[in-house]
Amino acid sequence: MTDKVLIADDEPNIVVSLSFMLKREGYEVLVAPDGLQALDMIRSDPPRLVLLDAAMPGMNGFDVCEAVRADPGLSGVRILMLTAKGRETDIARGMGAGADAYVTKPFSTRELIVRIRELLA
Amino acid sequence: MIQPGFVLAASFGYLVLLVAVAAHGDRRAGQGRSLIDSSLVYALSWGVYCSAWTYFGSIGRAALGGVWFLPIYLGPMLAMLLAWLVLRKMVRIARSYRITSIADFIASRYGKSPLLAALVTLITVVGILPYIALQLKAVSAGYEALTGGQGQSDMAWWRDGTLYMALSLAGFAVVFGTRHLDLSERHEGMVAAIAFESAVKLAAFLAVGVFVTYGLFAGMGDIWARAQAQPDIANLLRLDGLGFEGFQGAQWFALTLLSMLSVLMLPRQFQMMVVECVDERHILRAAWLFPAYLLLINIFVLPIAIGGMLMMGDAGAGAESYVLTLPLSQGAAWLALLAYIGGLSAATGMIIVETVAVSTMVCNDLVMPALLRSGRFAQAGGDLTRLLLNIRRAAILLVLLLGYLYFRVAGEAYALVSIGLISFAAVAQFAPALLGGMYWRGATRAGALGGLIGGSLVWAYTLMLPSVARSGWIGADFLDGPFGLTFLAPQRLFGLSGFDELTHSLFWSLLVNIALYVGLSLIGRASAREASQALLFVDVFERGQAQPVFWRGRARPEDLRRLAGRFLGAARAEALFRDHARETGTALDSLTADARLVDRVERQIAGAIGTASARVMVESVSQEEPLSLDDVLEIIDEASQVRVYARELEEATIELRAANEKLKSLDQLKDDFMSSVTHELRTPLTSIRALTELMLDTPDIESAQRDEFLGIILSESERLSRLVNQVLDLAKIEAGVAEWHTTRVDMKALIAAALRATAELFREHGTEVALDLPERVPMVLADPDRLTQVLVNLLSNAAKFVPKGRGRVQIVLLRQGDELVVKVRDNGPGVAPGDQATVFEKFRQGGDACNRPPGTGLGLPISRQIVVNLGGRMWLESRPGQGACFAFSLPLQGQGRSR
């Protein structure tokens, strides 16, 4: 059975690259263009992993992450935060929100896939 | 008659009560609940002016000369009218510069001159001894009258009760006047006791007055009526009465002036009014309470005097003890005893305060300078506070013993009043130097010295020596002029006759005094130190806290500290330096001995040893640069500038704070900008990097897929370079380093050019473009390339947001007043009301993320910046659903000039 992975990002070109990479690795890919849709999709059909962009319009990635972690029914969902901001406070906030991993943009697809495999192992 | 033992016991009991009051005052001061911090107590303590001389002598004088006892009290009342002006200034000066005696006051004013201090002290001691003798004589005479004993002066000195009275008063003064070395020389217990004494003597005197007037007679009217019946007594009630041939205005004036001056210059008055003043504001109330006190204590003087003459039929020296003998003769022994206690309180109060004040002067201005000059004390270390106290104690004892000696030797020669007036005339010599020094900057040390020496020599010759001559110590023919030179006759100098001896002496001594004071001051030149002290005294109210410090030189803090320790004690010196460190915001061990610290130490030491000695001591531990008159003026100037600086500094601080806030918010803006820029840079970089890696790692990638990826990489690269260009562009414009090629521009031509550049965008989406341009428009002064950039930005924005296939963009050009306005209107979604305010901010892109057309979020900020730089404005007119209209205006004012 293939693992479902949700990509939540507002940059279409990044979504293109991430979904290509995940499909190549054999995952089932879902896409959400903003935070609210991402949270809806996580709740209605919990994926194994969410690649969550921190800066999104509507509801940002940190808030999505916190909302997921606050829901005991979603405890199996792993979350990997992606952000263009590499500042210490953002990392701390991401970790505080309950993310399982934190990767800054621009990322290496090779390293990212290693992290994804670890999280889904 | 009362038993001597009983009188002695009552006297002793009274002294014990006095000790208790003083101890209570000291204890309350120790608890910080000052007993004397009240204008009533302050005014009562001024009552020390009314000595035994008032108590007994006034009646004697009234019995001899009627209303002639009055000037002695009218003078002080008049002086009090000026109290708020003169006395408050004295108090402020004494406070500010830690002045503790009248000698110190005068010496400090004239350049902290030790010579002047010593001179004033000498005059005081010589002038005041008869006065102290007078007090002792009064108590002694009172005792005789009460007990009916023989003249005690015939007894051997060791059996004389007056001696023991003097000794016990010395004890009191030592205990409450020199208990500790107070920096401001204030003695709360003593002041409390003196105020108490003032109340006692007033009560006792009033009791006797009421007894005589309403007990022995039927009120004042009765006494006047009976007096009129006896011609020799009736004369007393007239100004041209007994003993005075015709009313002598000069004498009346002389006496009033004399007492006016003495109420300020007598050492005990200076001590009580100036040194012991707790709060300047008390002066205001005390200035009418004190005259009221004088009025009360004088009300019954004439009734008692006349009553006594009517009842006892004796107008001689006996009148001085009417307060005792009248009640006694009527069998009112208790009242007589009370009256005696009142007289005792008048005498003891005067003696205590006078000796304490004089001992401070003797110690600080005679003994200490001699000791310090001897070298032994100047060099040696160690705490000198105990030594200072012991010197003062010895001085108190010495002054009292000298007073006693004078009493034994010369006491019988004169009536009480005459002795008192000799003292008054002596201290009146201080008036020109003291009062002049407070108001006349030009007064010099030479003038003060000359005036004091001249005035007091004349005083001694015309008043002191004749009194000695009358006691038989020098031949009586001296009174007719030495060596037979009649024009030098001490009481008719240069043939001046027609005055009584006091008026005569006062006239000559003050004339010589003032003439020398003014003359020498005008002829000579003040030294820098005199000039600086003159400024500090005369302008004491002018500068508030920003007093200039007239000191330049070098000193070591350790030396100053050791010096302070010697005269103040280690604990006080420590506190002094600690306070200074705290007030200047410096660490205690990194204090530098600047002028302020040196001045502070000198002032504190001055409180202990006098300003003149303090000056010498500070000089001994520092290398001072002598000040010139120019330096003094310069320092004054600096001090007044300090106040201006302080105000300017305050304003500058506020401005700086505002600027700092602005900088902080600018800094925050810059941070936000950088953060946004990096975010905007990272996003395309992320796509480029990820897609490139993926293509590298997927050799078998489908060619369609690869083309899509390459297309994305290309557009993201373009986005990157656009972003970088725009960021740099904006930075240049904002920093004001962008190049502007301003020329006359035809806006219609520019719009056409911009439309050509964006034609492809509009054509692509089938957007219709409408132009609404007037026939002719004036030229504007602008940079055509920049302006084209603005137009292209607005047009491409419009192109991005209009609906595909049915887009419509309208360009309007019009003239509004002295402005040219360009509007670009579209039929897109418009700008939501919430976003309208921020649409010109950096990185605020319209539309939602997915449907947002490509852009950097810098186009509008740059456009607006350009328009603003060209002197115009840019704004948005938009209602949601009706499209957006971006507009800008440019001023036409350059057009007239270019034509």
Automatic annotation (TrEMBL), chain A:
Domain of life: Bacteria
Location of the Response regulatory domain: 4-120
Keyword flag Nuclease: no
Sorted UniProt keywords: DNA-binding, Phosphoprotein, Transcription, Transcription regulation, Two-component regulatory system
GO molecular function: DNA binding
Residue numbers of 4-aspartylphosphate PTMs: D53
GO BP field: phosphorelay signal transduction system
Name this polypeptide is given: Response regulatory domain-containing protein
Classification of source organism: Bacteria, Pseudomonadati, Pseudomonadota, Alphaproteobacteria, Rhodobacterales
